Amino acid sequence: MARTLRSRRRQFTNIAALGASTLATVFGLFWLVWILLTTVINGYQALNLKLITQMTPPPGSDGGLLNAIAGSGIMIAVAVLLGAPIGIMAGTHLAEFGKKNALAELIRFVNDILLSAPSIVIGLFVYELVVRQSGHFSGWAGAVSLGFILLPVVVRTTDETMRLVPTQLREAALALGAPKWKMTLSVLYPAARTGILTGLLLGVARISGETAPLLFTALNNQYWSADLAEPMANIPVVIFQFALAPYDAWHALAWAGALLMTMFVLIVSVGARFLLRERNG
Amino acid sequence: MPGPPARLPPDHLPPDHPADLTRKAVRAMSPPATATAMTAPTAQPARRARGAAGDALFRAAALFAALFVLISLSAAALSMLYGGLPALMKFGLGFLYHVAWNPVRQDFGAAVPIYGTLLSSALAMLIAVPVSFGIAIFLTEVSPRRLRGPIAAAIELLAGIPSIIYGMWGLFVFVPYMSDHIEPWLTDHLGDLPLLGALFQGPPLGIGMLTAGIILGVMIIPFISSVMRDVFALVPPSLREAAFALGATRWEVVSGVVLPYTRTAVVGGIFLGLGRALGETMAVTFVLGNAHELSASLLMPGNSIAAAIANEFTEADSDIYLSSLIALGFLLFVVTFIVLAAAKIMLLRLARNEGN
């Protein structure tokens, strides 16, 4: 009798715990759906052709996001050009030359911390590094801070995918007399291509939505500017300023920008994961 | 075989190595190396010298890039220390617990932002830890195998949504909902409790600590749950199966086998989430209210380190104001560094045990 009671209590605890875990999952998905639906509905209502033909408007009036879209695009591209080569080379060092030595382990450790470090701190760093030295806010400063956020993503994925390349490929290239740099360029990089590309895409997805590091590096610009030496308009900071302003026209533009940005980020990051899954079979 | 044997350590090519297969693969990938080497043997020494120089150059460039990662973290810390030094010198240790934040009198203390950062992160952890644990259990124990991938991917989408979207959604959708429904209810039902009641008193503004804590909690769920799910998967099947064979229920396997086995790494995952919550900026900037006041109530506006920097940096009109904000950034950097390093060490410990 006591035994069945105990068994029943155990069954009950089991069902309650597993039920609670199911509820927790529903809870998580609920917020995802709520946030995405709000963004899509509000953003869709604000979509029109003016978004890509007109500049950001002065307070209270109508306009588009052309300068902000261009500014974001330019700064992301420059960030990739700055961050990707350094990241790929650093990843190459970790995977090929450092392997398991103390320095390489330290760099992996530091890189993982950079990966999760608050992005606003990177903004402050680049403010001290670029803005204070040059005396003014600029697109360069924005691109550099985005580059610093992209860097650890690229380092980590490059390191991980290059270590997956079979040792036999390296040995075969070396046995044929190829110097190590040539072996890396023409055997390892092609073999690790998909993984490195995935890392780049994940990095681009990450920096496309970053706002905090741009607030006091690129600042913002109400007008068209493709000059990296000037303050540069960009989608995240425009959303920040317009959403907090008291004008309905600006709120609509902020939602449109939010939808464009979210879709871009999600498509790029889902695409990157898809690429990774293809490679892994 | 082109290339002198001296360049190959003996352990690189064991005698039973399937060299034929790999040689074909390499020839397909880099024809010049093999073709020219075979047709022009007289050019060998020059080529070899060039190869060695190229190797040294390449190795140096890779090392420099790797050191760059190391340098950038130290440079970030040093540059913020340098920028914050005037404020730290002027206010001394008192900067940490001084409550005032007065740009007009140029009197700055970090107590309010520090309190806000700690309180909003604590609220976020209260929500995110149990929910993430539940999600990890659901994904490893409950969910049908076919649904695991899609549900895990959907939860990870939460991490993909840019933080400013959380902030904007919070301001326009969640804040009105909180002030219309949740907060009046909390004040009515919990506001009269002894002691705890003070947490839930005040006007239902919508913006404030509680709202920020909830949004932060939702944001860090995917980070914690994906670590938990990954480490749960590392538990050796033989341990789980042994427990099942003894008649344990699924919950008993989780609480009695899986959790004890992965405890350190689970705490590491929680610290990783905490590191994210402490430094999160845009989501809380929208909903905290930027008020430099200490308040016992969770419903009152407040401030956090990151939100103060984001809101006030471009408006800082004096050197000491700017320096105080940078000093705040330095504090945030130091605290998140410690939390993230602790997380990493705890996660590494499980990985190392796995390796043995």
Write a structural description:
With 281 residues, chain A is mainly α. Chain A has one domain (50-280): MetI-like (MetI-like fold, Orthogonal Bundle), CATH 1.10.3720. Chain A has nine helices and no strands. The model of chain A has no long low-confidence stretch (mean pLDDT 92). Chain B is built from twelve helices and two strands. Chain B is mostly helical and 356 residues long. Chain B has a single domain (94-353), classed as MetI-like (MetI-like fold). The model of chain B is unreliable at 1-41 (pLDDT under 50). Chain B has a two-stranded antiparallel sheet with strand order 1-2. The radius of gyration of chain B is 28 Å and the shape is flat. In chain B, helix 7 packs across helix 9, helix 8 packs across helix 9 and helix 11 crosses helix 12 (319-355). At the A-B interface, helix 1, helix 2, helix 3, helix 4 and helix 5 of A face helix 1, helix 2, helix 3, helix 4 and helix 5 of B.
Compact summary:
The complex is a heterodimer of chains A (281) and B (356). Chain A is an all-alpha fold and 281 residues long.
SSE pattern of chain A: HHHHHHHHH
Number of strands of chain B: 2
Q: Characterize the largest beta sheet of chain B: strand count, sense, and whether it forms a barrel.
A: 2 strands, antiparallel
Structural class of chain A: mainly alpha
- Discrete helix count of chain B: 12
Rg calculated over all Cα atoms of chain A: 24 Å
Q: Into which percent range does the helicity of residues of chain A fall?
A: over 70%
Mind describing the biggest β-sheet of chain A?
none
- Overall pLDDT level of chain B: 86
Order of helices and strands of chain B: HHHEEHHHHHHHHH
Task: Give the full name of the CATH homologous superfamily of chain B.
Answer: MetI-like
Structural class of chain B: mainly alpha
Overall 3D form of chain B: flat
Oligomeric state of this protein: heterodimer
The interface involving the most residues is between: A-B, 105 and 110 residues
> Strand order across the biggest sheet of chain B?
1-2
| DSSP E strands of chain A, number | 0
Instruction: Give the C-level CATH assignment of chain B.
Output: Mainly Alpha
The separation of the N and C termini of chain B measures 39 Å
| Strand residues, percent of chain B | under 5%
